[in-house]
């Protein structure tokens, strides 16, 4: 008796459906802007009924928050990976890798980062901010323990450096001058190394 070919499931798993909605929203936010994008457009682009949207998100702002969380997790993972890829005691290389990945990751995100972090007025999510600062904070704490540098407060220093990096990238993205990636990376790297007193080595 010939075997019947397996039929495709009529519904997608919840995570896949949620990702479809988020991806559609991200694409529309980039194309049309946050304010001009409607829930109807998001559900149409994701090929789902409008009621399905509310199974996963309470509002358009909730999708934006989910996109911000996803970007934060991915970006923080990139920062941590770039640090860990350097040899264990290559402290200068680890700082340089953090600076390069931090700058290029935000530059590559471009308009998406603007929408996620600046386009919609809402209270700062300090848990999200902490996630972004943690990879450098862990590096600074480890370097202090190994005697690579002397930093009294690794978290404060990491917050200071990441906030400066983020601000410098924003200035480059939305300023009038053309972006010089290599020069921006060099400046951030130089200042970060200066903070940990490795700029003379």
TrEMBL record:
Domain of life according to the entry: Bacteria
Query: What Pfam families is this protein classified in?
Result: TetR_N (PF00440)
The protein here is known as TetR family transcriptional regulator
Q: Does DNA-binding count among this protein's keywords?
A: yes
* Keywords from the UniProt entry: Coiled coil, DNA-binding
InterPro entries of this UniProt entry? DNA-bd_HTH_TetR-type_CS (IPR023772), Homeodomain-like_sf (IPR009057), HTH-type_TetR-like_transc_reg (IPR050109), HTH_TetR (IPR001647)
Domain HTH tetR-type, residue spans = 15-75
One GO MF annotation is: transcription cis-regulatory region binding
Q: Which residues bind DNA?
A: 38-57
Q: Does the keyword Transferase apply?
A: no
């Amino acid at each position: 008796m010939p075997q019947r070919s397996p039929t495709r499931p009529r519904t997608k798993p919840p995570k896949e459906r949620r990702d479809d909605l988020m991806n559609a929203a991200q694409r529309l936010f980039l194309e049309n802007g946050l304010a001009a994008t409607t829930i109807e457009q998001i559900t149409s682009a994701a090929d789902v009924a409008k009621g399905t949207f509310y199974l996963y998100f309470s509002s358009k702002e909730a999708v934006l928050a989910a996109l911000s969380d996803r970007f934060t997790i991915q970006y923080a993972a990139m920062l941590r990976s770039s640090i860990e890829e350097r040899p264990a005691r290559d402290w200068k290389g680890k700082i340089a890798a953090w600076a390069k990945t931090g700058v290029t990751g935000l530059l590559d995100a471009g308009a998406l980062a603007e929408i996620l972090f600046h386009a919609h007025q809402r209270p700062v999510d300090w848990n999200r901010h902490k996630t972004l600062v943690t990879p450098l904070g862990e590096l600074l704490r480890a370097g202090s323990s190994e005697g690579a540098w002397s930093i009294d407060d690794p978290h404060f220093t990491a917050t200071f450096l990441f906030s400066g990096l983020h601000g410098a990238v924003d200035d480059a993205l939305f300023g009038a001058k053309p972006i010089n990636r290599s020069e921006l990376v060099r400046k951030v790297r130089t200042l970060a190394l200066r903070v940990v007193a490795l700029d003379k080595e």
